[in-house]
Specification:
Elements: H1 3-21, H2 49-64, E1 83-84, E2 90-94, H3 99-104, H4 111-122, E3 131-134, H5 148-165, E4 169-173, H6 174-181, H7 188-191, E5 196-197, E6 209-213, H8 216-221, H9 225-242
Parallel strand pairs: 2-3, 2-4, 4-6
Antiparallel strand pairs: 1-3, 5-6
Helix pairs in contact: 2-5
This protein binds uracil.
Uracil binds near residues 96, 108 and 110.
Length: about 250
């Protein structure tokens, strides 16, 4: 993480803590802690659906597609910006594109993506009702995890996506998404299932509810009833906060 980002996070934490002590709305993200659910977040400047769609499209076309900010551009076929409802209440953040995503330019369309789609459908939603994106927009070679410098190079795109969409809830999928969004080194096994608050990683983002859960690729590798049950529990917590009725179940 750059020194600037560390300083920003430190001062944001102080601001949030002060705000909390003064009776404000922010609660700092607590590793291993967690809140009961949603809290009011300061509203971002209101943007209509069309305006959000255009703002996202502009970043994708003008900045992400021609991006050469890190080495990942060298081997990519397509950048993978993200897709879904630009005004979604719920955003899923994964790690980075795999082979199928690189080939198509769409997030979560490989095997892990099929499982994520099932998870979304089990919530009574479709992919079009949510927004799906990743920490990095280009495929790391051999599906390795993105490096800190690559995440850093792509960070501003994710922040602006979240600022434009202004979701009520973010589901962070797996360790890299969870640890970077929440600025923690605590592992997903401890973090999952516990409500967290987004730190002030960008204007208007502090306090957004985050539900960390296992990455669908991990779930595919460890496809046990226990793990599936845990993810389903996590998603049900999200559904409760979003006022969605339980209609199905992951299998
Ligand atoms: N596909 C994605 O788009 N992201 C992941 O993290 C994994 C697969």
């Amino acid at each position: 993480m750059s020194e600037d980002r560390q300083k920003l996070i430190k001062s944001a934490r102080q601001l949030i803590e002060t705000d909390r002590l003064l009776g404000g709305q922010f609660i700092p993200a607590a590793a291993g802690g967690g809140s009961a659910g949603p809290a009011a977040v300061p509203a971002p400047p209101s943007m209509g659906l069309q305006e959000k769609a255009e703002a996202l499209e502009a970043i994708d076309v003008a900045e992400v597609r021609p991006c050469v900010n890190c080495r990942l551009y060298q081997a990519r076929t397509h950048t993978v910006f993200g897709e879904g409802d630009p005004d979604a209440d719920l955003v899923f953040v994964g790690e980075g594109p795999g082979a199928e995503e690189d080939r198509t330019g769409r997030p979560f369309v490989g095997r892990a993506g099929e499982l994520l789609t099932k998870m979304i459908e089990a919530m009574g939603l479709g992919r079009r009702d949510v927004y799906i994106c990743n920490l990095v927009k280009c495929r790391p070679p051999q599906n390795r995890a993105p490096g800190p410098d690559e995440i850093e190079a792509c960070w501003g795109y994710l922040i602006r996506q979240l600022q434009i969409i202004a979701p009520k809830v973010i589901v962070s999928l797996g360790n890299p998404a969870t640890q970077n969004l929440l600025d923690t080194r605590v592992g997903i096994t401890k973090m999952r299932g516990r409500w967290q608050k987004l730190p002030l990683i960008g204007e208007h983002l502090a306090g957004i509810d985050v539900m960390p859960t296992f990455h669908p690729a991990y779930l595919l590798r460890q496809y046990t009833g226990d793990n599936r049950g845990k993810v389903w529990d996590d998603l049900q917590k999200v559904m409760a906060v979003l006022g969605l009725k339980v209609r199905g179940k992951t299998n």
